[in-house]
Design goal:
This protein is an alpha+beta fold and 357 residues long. The chain is built from 13 helices and 9 strands.
Length: 357
């Protein structure tokens, strides 16, 4: 480097300075700087290179000192060449400095931190419950039936002994289509469709899982939910058959320790009718249990012996039967400990799923 400066001063002293020789020297200085920069690996290298080239006693400073020897007409250009080089050095060093800092951050990451939990796909709790319910009833010899979600008034209400002026219609307000059909409010219309389809061939032993709709929306009611209907029709069917089937089912679904209770109730399409309760997970011991509100029991289904009017509407005679209907969301919420039905649907579902499954 010494020689480089030396030759410059020699030339200018001889008064034959030309700007291109300054350019050449700066170019050589730049090449040298570039190669030194490319082998720089740490902070110390940066400060060393900085003071060597643009420091107070650096090489560039030596060149600046020569400026007074340069003819006036050329000084401005010479100054610009040197200043450009200075700026170039500063920028390059700054770039390298931030690159080194970034690298340091990368290396300082804590690789012993536990990894993020992966979020794998799995079945919706309603699907899990539906599959399990179906499996238990299939073991008891029930066949799976289905019916349309857009249903005719006849199947959803009238054939089930709910004529147009019946007050039970108020409790099952729903969504009506312009052509007079409606979104079914329960799976019971499948009872009618299954009996029509089988034209009296006995026994009829079906379950009908599916989606149903009502004008509801709160912590325990959704406008769209699922039910599983059951229907058993034969020459002779007793209410104890109904009790036996449901007790067997609930013990299989919730565990053998579950107690099942039948309470007299009313449905237009069954007579007599009953509400089915199961013992709460709290065992009935906790007065402030949020699930059963201290009652010790939870209502999970409706059931009863098929009403003679229902058989009449499909032209069946001399037969007996039982029917039941259960809400799948309710069963899933009890089984998986979910407190708000709205968690199962809508935008919160993903967050909910991460917490529960
Ligand atoms: N369909 C009734 C409901 O949705 C339940 C039910 C089904 C009751 C079959 C009795 C027999 O509330």
């Amino acid at each position: 480097m010494q020689s480089l400066i030396g030759s410059l001063s020699f030339k200018t002293m001889g008064n034959d300075f030309d700007i291109s020789s300054l350019e050449n020297k700066v170019k050589r200085l730049k090449d040298e700087f570039d190669s030194e920069l490319s082998s720089a690996k740490e902070e110390q290298d940066i400060s060393r290179i900085k003071s060597k080239y643009i420091g107070k006693k650096g090489l560039l400073q030596d060149l600046f000192k020569l400026i007074p020897q340069i003819p006036e007409s050329e000084r401005k250009l010479a100054g610009k060449i040197l200043n450009d080089f200075k700026q170039y050095v500063e920028e390059k060093l700054e770039d390298l400095k931030s690159a080194l800092e970034r690298k340091q951050v990368e290396f300082s990451e804590d690789i012993t931190l536990p990894g993020r939990r992966s979020f794998s796909a799995n079945l919706h709790p309603i699907t899990v419950a539906l599959r399990e319910i179906t499996e238990i009833f299939e073991k008891m010899g029930f066949e799976v039936e289905s019916g349309p979600e857009m249903e005719e008034d006849w199947y959803n209400f009238t054939a089930l002994n709910i004529p147009p002026d019946h007050p039970a219609r108020d409790m099952q307000d729903t969504f009506y289509l312009e052509d007079g059909r409606l979104l079914r409010t329960h799976t019971s219309p499948v009872q009618i469709r299954a009996m029509e389809k089988r034209k009296g061939v006995l026994p009829i032993k079906i379950i009908a899982p599916g989606r149903v709709f009502r004008r509801d929306w709160d912590a325990t009611h959704s406008p769209v939910f699922h039910q599983v209907e059951g229907l058993f029709v034969d020459k002779k069917v007793k209410m104890s058959d109904l009790f036996g089937v449901l007790e067997f089912f609930f013990k299989k679904f919730f565990g053998e320790g579950t107690r099942v209770r039948f309470r007299p109730s009313y449905f237009p399409f069954t007579e007599p009718s009953a509400e089915v309760d199961i013992s709460c997970v709290c065992g009935g011991k906790s007065k402030d249990c949020k699930v059963c509100k201290g009652s010790g029991f939870l209502e999970v289904a409706g059931c009863g012996m098929v009403h003679p009017e229902v058989f009449r509407s499909v032209g069946y005679e001399g037969v007996q039967g039982f029917a039941f209907g259960m809400g799948v969301e309710r069963l899933a919420m009890i089984k998986f400990g979910i407190s708000d039905i709205r968690l199962l649907f809508g935008e919160n579902y993903i967050a909910f799923k991460k917490t529960f499954f």
